[in-house]
Automatic annotation (TrEMBL):
PROSITE patterns, per the entry: PTS_EIIC_TYPE_1 (PS51103)
Top-level taxon: Bacteria
Entry-linked Pfam families: PTS_EIIC
Organism phylogeny: Bacteria, Pseudomonadati, Pseudomonadota, Gammaproteobacteria, Enterobacterales
Organism: Escherichia coli
Name of the protein: PTS system maltose and glucose-specific transporter subunit IICB
Length: 151
């Protein structure tokens, strides 16, 4: 039985594949950006003052929902990339690659949490200390914020 050899990939082909890989989460960003922009603008106090009918509680619930849906992609941008890049670059076992990317991201956050704990920065609930060290809860793990969260 002969061993299966992987086909040679040129540098150009690798970067083309990498570019296609980035398109998966980036495509979601445009949709979420539109939802976030519309929802946030139509629920703002200034717009409601100009157009009072938008103050309707049902409409405000819809606009708030749109804002929440829109902020999803920006809150979980690192997670989306840690799953999408291995998924797009793997030739076989794409599911395993995506899962490994997610596990790697979680382990990285646990390692940062361990480092922050050893340095004496954690555990704390002092908001000033957390903000000064750029610490957020990421997937339930206190770690250095690596995202582009909407705050």
């Amino acid at each position: 039985m002969t061993a299966k050899t992987a086909p040679k990939v040129t540098l150009w082909e690798f970067f083309q594949q990498l570019g296609k890989t980035f398109m998966l989460p980036v495509a979601l960003l445009s949709f979420c950006g539109i939802m976030l922009g519309i929802g946030s603008s139509l629920s703002s106090h200034d717009v409601i003052t100009l157009i009072p009918v938008l103050g309707n509680p049902v409409l405000q619930a819809i606009f708030t929902w749109m804002s929440k849906i829109g902020s999803f992609a920006f809150s979980f941008l690192p997670v989306m990339f840690c799953i999408a890049i291995p998924l797009g670059l793997a030739r076989e076992n794409k599911g395993v690659a995506a899962f490994a990317g997610f596990v790697g991201y979680a382990v990285m956050n646990l390692a940062v949490n361990f480092w922050l704990t050893n340095k004496g920065i954690l555990p704390t609930t002092d908001a000033a200390v957390l903000k000064a060290n750029n610490i957020q809860s990421i997937l339930g793990i206190q770690s250095i914020d690596t995202g582009s969260s909407v705050r």
